Amino acid sequence: MAATTAPPLAYRDAPEAPVRTNKKSAWGSPTTYFIALVLVAITLAPVAYIVLGGFRTNSQITESPSGLPAPWVVSNYTEVLKSSVFWQQLGNSTLVALVTTVGVVVLGVMASYVLARYRFRGRGAMYSLFAAGLMFPITVAITPLYILIKNIGLINNLAGVILPQIAFALPTTIIILVPFLRAIPEEIEEAAWLDGCGRLGFFFRMVLRLSLPGVLTTGILAFVASWNSYILPLFILNDQGKYTLPLGVQAFSSQYSQDTAKVLAFTSLSMIPALVFFSLFERRIVGGLQGAVKG
Fold first, then answer.
1. Does residue 216 register a pLDDT over 90?
2. Structural domain containing residue 95
3. Fewest CB within a 10 Å sphere: which of 87, 109, 166, 245?
């Protein structure tokens, strides 16, 4: 029997070559960071101009439109905050946004659960119909929608804004939530059945908890979209006491067209709640969208 020969000593004792890591690929290209910073600056510049403009006087804005406040003036913001019109419009926007969000989340979760977990004829066509709703903006349907709302007596009523907003937000909600609900393993549902849990019990005890990231994502998107909605309230609401903040900004800028600083202060106070809300839950939105793609 032939003896096996050992490998040469040089090959046995040779140290392993170190793995070289490309620092440029690990940290990214400087060009990428530069482009990202430019895009961030372009996005934040208008917001910063509006906020800082509220701390200036009209003469400062006229002399140096892009300058900083010198001195800082807080009277524009205090006068807006003392106005009852601002708080009334803030309450209208909050009410419309909250009711719209609740309606979108509740109806969206229930419809998505049926499309994701039930098997019935026409399920694919129904899902495709909701997907097609993403390509149907509200501006296209504003005229027939106005006629419909007028016929049912909801003109100059906040409900006439809330109901269409819920309807037009459902396609996005369903497209995001269906992958979440489909990704729930069937073994969990079978175990729930063995424990005596029915379909409704499984829905409330398990489905809602497992799909919470997607639910939060759709709720945040619905809230921000409702808060910033302009075209629908413009057609439906004609009483200034029913105005939401986007309409209030337009009415305020028309009333105080000569007082640019105060208009900027009113505008910045109107958009701050949505910006803060979106910034606080930004990670939730990203995580929810990633889960929808993976599902």
1. no
2. 88-247+268-290
3. 87
Q: Which residue has the tokens 């709720």?
A: 219
Domain assignment of residue 28, yes or no: no
Residue 22 pLDDT more than 80? no
Whether 145 is in a domain gets the answer: yes
State the pLDDT at residue 139.
Answer: 85
What number of CA atoms fall less than 13 Å from residue 45's CA on the CB side?
8
Q: What is the CATH number of the domain that holds 220?
A: 1.10.3720.10
In this predicted model, what pLDDT tens digit does every residue of 29-87 receive, in sequence order? 888 888 989 998 998 898 899 999 999 999 998 888 888 888 899 999 999 999 899 99
